[in-house]
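Database export, one record per block. Field names are fixed; values are copied verbatim from the stored entry.
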Amino acid sequence: MRGRTRFSLALVGALVAAAACATGAVQGEAVWLMTEGEAALAPAPVTRAPLPNDGPVIKIITPQQGAEVTSPFPVEIQFEPRAGGAPPKMDTLKLTALKIFEIDITDRVKPYVGELRLFVKEAKIPTGRHRLKLTIADAAGNLTAQILEVTVR
């Protein structure tokens, strides 16, 4: 029963965060990318398996990889075609929080996706160390994935 309760709390938290995200996009308020319940879930085991890297180039501008930040903080990620590759397809962008299971938080950032970038002026994530996975494809279907690690103080 305990596992079912945690899952239910995470699901409710995801729905609340999605609603808050939609409101923040309209009003320019800080956006919750992850709820307290989701952040409290056990982290996913670190895997050494290589991530796909045949698609667009993912350039994480801010926060820097492994950075310590204070919430809210800006998130800026740019996407470029790989040399000789097809252009990025922004509608394939997927953002997940890596917890005991992957939590898809793509809908929370969709209002902040531009032509070739993701820009959230004030992203909020609860205190702790978090791993987020970005995945995107190009027009030819080639995938790239990258993991962003950030510690929120």
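Remark 1: The CA atoms of residues 127 and 152 lie 5 Å apart.
Remark 2: Confidence is low (pLDDT under 50) at residues 5-27.
End of record.
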